[in-house]
Prior knowledge:
This protein has a single domain (46-214), classed as Porin (Beta Barrel), CATH 2.40.160.
Amino acid sequence: MKKLLLASIGILAMSVVAASAADLPRQRMMPAKAPIYIPPAWSWTGFYIGINGGGGFGRSDFSAPFPTGSFNTSGGLLGGTLGYNYQTGNIVLGAEGDIDWSDIHGSAACAGTSCETRNNWLGTARGRLGYTFGNFMPYVTGGLAVGDIKTSIVGDASQTKAGWTAGGGIEAHISGPWSAKVEYLHVDLGRGASVLGSDAKFQTDLVRAGLNYKF
């Protein structure tokens, strides 16, 4: 009888505890915070195409027998760009080529007439070396320059000449696959074809802007 009483008391106590636990308010689960999104770093590695445009400002002169002395040349240019970059760490190695329509020209009086130097097209094939600061990449560049030199006195003559170019610029990632650049190039094509025994040199300083699309 005593054992039965103790068992009854134990069952009753367990029931009270269970009922009390059921009446306790349930703790709310705090919602998990979404992880902070960190966009992937822009990589310069890859092929790209683009457009470029700007202006050229230089000096020219005609040799004897129609010497002119040095005179100014200037004009605009517009064209396309193709290139490839490879990034390792913060260093970017690249190769770039472009071909532009050009209207860089100038003239001076010579022996009672006018002597004119004109450049109708200009292309370059250059190496590039850049260093990235986030989305910005300053760079130096240099290589081959090719273009025509048209010389005019009474008649005219045109000759394709190969020379050199060197300069630098800065390129910046804008959004998605797009980047924009501003650059300076010095171009020297040497001297062009002779007209009546006189030829002209062509040197120019280019300031251009460009927009590139990376694949």
